[in-house]
C-alpha cells in the first residue's frame, strides 16, 4: 500500500517537560568548516498527487500534507512513523496537558522516526528549513511557562495568559529566524483580554551538518482584536552587562528530522519539538 498521506492534527493553546538529563538522541551532528549554500528553493516545488488522512484533536485541526512516496519499504516505514508521532502528540495541546507517560510516548515515537530516517544533512540542503513552520508539540511546555524550560511568562499563575498558535519563520537566504507566538493576556473586568502577537527576531547560522545557532535581535509586539489599530512596537533589549545569565541572547538546537512538511528539533536544554509546515 502506498505510504503517501495527508495528515491533519491539532494546535491551538499552551505547552510539557522532559528531563534535561535524559539520554541523548541516537545520533549527533558532524562538523565541517565549509559554508552552507542552499542548493535549491522549495518555493516553486510542485508536489505529486496526494490523498487525505486526518488526525483529530481536542483543540482543532492543522492541515499537514505529505508528498506521495515511491512505495519502497523504507519510505512506507518513515511515513508510518510520522503518523505515529503525530497521533501521539495530537491530543496533548502542544504538551501542556501531557502526563509523564505522554512525554515518554512522544519521546519514543520521535526517536523511532529519527533512527529510521538517519542523520540530517543540511550542509547542501539548508533550503529544507525554508518557510513558516507551525509548532505541534514541545516537551518543555508542561512547565507552564511560555519560555519552556527557560524563564518565561507563567501561564495561569500570576496573570491569566493563554498561548495561541506558535510558529517559526525561517529565511535561509537572509538568515532570519523568527519565533512567533500569539498570546491572549487577561484584563480586569469589564475590559476584554488583550490579544498580542509577539515576534522574537533572531539571526541563525548552521554549525556542522544539523546544528543551528540562533542569536536574538529584538522583540516586536503587535496587538490585534479591539486594539488592532495600534502599530507594531519593539521592546528594547537589555544591555549585555545587565542581562541575566539565564538569558544570554543565543541558543542552539539540532534538527534531527526534516522533510518537506515535518521537522523535529532537540534544544540545548533537552526540549523535543515537533513542527509541520504552515
Automatic annotation (TrEMBL):
The keyword Phosphoprotein does not apply. Keywords: Plastid, Transit peptide. It holds the Pfam family PAP_fibrillin. The keyword Translocase does not apply. Residues 1-43 are annotated as: Disordered. GO terms for cellular component: chloroplast. Residues 8-18, 28-42 have a biased composition (Low complexity). Residues 80-275 form the Plastid lipid-associated protein/fibrillin conserved domain. Its main location: plastid. It comes from the Eukaryota. It is found in: Plastid, Chloroplast. Coiled coil: none annotated. Belongs to the PAP/fibrillin family. This is Plastid lipid-associated protein/fibrillin conserved domain-containing protein.
